[in-house]
Amino acid sequence: MNGAATRTGTYIGRIGVLAVILGVGVCVAPAAADPDASPQAGVGSHAAVEKPSLAEWFEPVAAATEAPRVQSSSPVATAPAHRTAQRPVRNGSTGEIEPASTASAADLAADFELSRFFFAPTTLAAPAAHRTTSEAAPAAAAVSTSLFSPTGAFLGAVGPGGWLIGDGVLPGQNGGLLIGNGADGGPGQDGGRGGLLMGNGGNGGAGLPGQAGGNGGDAGLFGNGGNGGVGGVGDAEGRAGNGGRGGNGGLLMGNGGAGGNGGTAENDSFADGGRGGDGGNSGFLGNGGNGGNGGAASSTSSLANGGSGGNGGRSGFGGTAGNGGNGGNASSTTEDALGGRGGAGGDGGLLGDGGEGGAGGRGTSITGNFGGGGNGGNGGRGGLNGNGGAGGAGGDGQNGRGSAIGGTGGRGGNGGFGGAGG
């Protein structure tokens, strides 16, 4: 009897454990069931209640080899497997299996951009649109264009537009800090500077109507200065823009840039031609830049003034200085016309020759009172063993019925100890 009771107790104990397990399932299942679908079920009718299967509760996690790769032409698509392989996870609130996180793809793109900070791409255009099978593409696309300006210029360290080594690509942009050529300026904008070690200056941009041309950019230790931009044509008031100044050559070696020509002015009333820009100075070894020519002026009923020529730039140790620019011609139908003055020649270096002075412009008045030519520019001074530059010729004066006076020629420059004067 005792043995039977013991066996019965053992069976009851086992059944009790099973009942507890099944009871938990009964308690959980009705909470998930739709109360309107069937009447309340008691404990005795728990078999009729739909319960989640063991397969749903203990569904095995799908094997994951790699997260979806970004289909793109950029190197982001070549992600290592260990960075993208992550196991899917089950959402604790919905019970649904969610795909692996794609944050690692964006992290990989950011890591790749560290190398792009130092090296430029092969093109200046922004990367092509990304084709993707996951949400990682927007993040990757945002990172891949972060080093580009809105115009497509690369803003890294090395390459086109690079801040350390590279040529300027935007209007007026400087070359790289160490090596690179400056970019040409936009309308009326100065050209960019060359790199500190090596690089040419960019050319100044041409001026808009009435606006001065941009100055040429300076070179670094080695390189040539940029040319000055041409002055803009006359505005509504008849005033033209001046030419830009030429950039200086490299401190150790390089030629100065030429000055820009002054703008021309054509107007029914007052007309004033633009002045030519001065030439840039050379470095220790190099030639000075020539001055720009003055702009011509033409008026039908008022005064016309030709623009003055720009001065030549100084030369270096043994180079030749730049010549002065010629004065602009002037003409008026009913009023006075005055030709522009020629620019002065630059001075020679220690052993260099001085530059020649520019010629004066011609002044022509058809029925006005006076037509006067511009004076010639003076020649530059020679170095210790250099020759002085010749003075520029004076401009002619012409008048149909009134007086006319030609301009005075420029004075020649002095020569050095062993050189001749101009």
Spatial order of strands in the largest sheet: 3-5-7-9-11
The major β-sheet equals:
5 strands, parallel
Q: Structural class of the helices, strands and pairings? A: little secondary structure
Low-pLDDT segments: 1-85, 114-147
Count of helical regions: 5
The rough form would be described as flat
* Percentage beta strand: 5-15%
Helical content stands at 10-25%
Description:
- Residues 273-295, 306-328, 339-422 have a biased composition (Gly residues).
- This is PE-PGRS family protein.
- Pfam families: PGRS (PF21526).
- The protein is largely without helices or strands and 422 residues long.
- The protein has a domain at 232-422.
- Helices cover 15% and strands 7% of the residues.
- The chain contains five helices and twelve strands.
- The protein has helices spanning 2-32, 54-57, 81-84, 103-116, 136-144, and strands at residues 89-90, 97-98, 265-267, 271-272, 297-299, 304-305, 330-332, 337-338, 363-365, 370-372, 397-399, 403-405.
- The strands form three sheets. It has a five-stranded parallel beta sheet with strand order 3-5-7-9-11, with no helix packed on it.
- Strand 1 (89-90) and strand 2 (97-98) form a beta hairpin.
- Helix 4 (103-116) packs parallel to helix 5 (136-144).
- The longest helix is centred in the first third of the chain and has 31 residues, at 2-32.
- It is flat, with a radius of gyration of 42 Å.
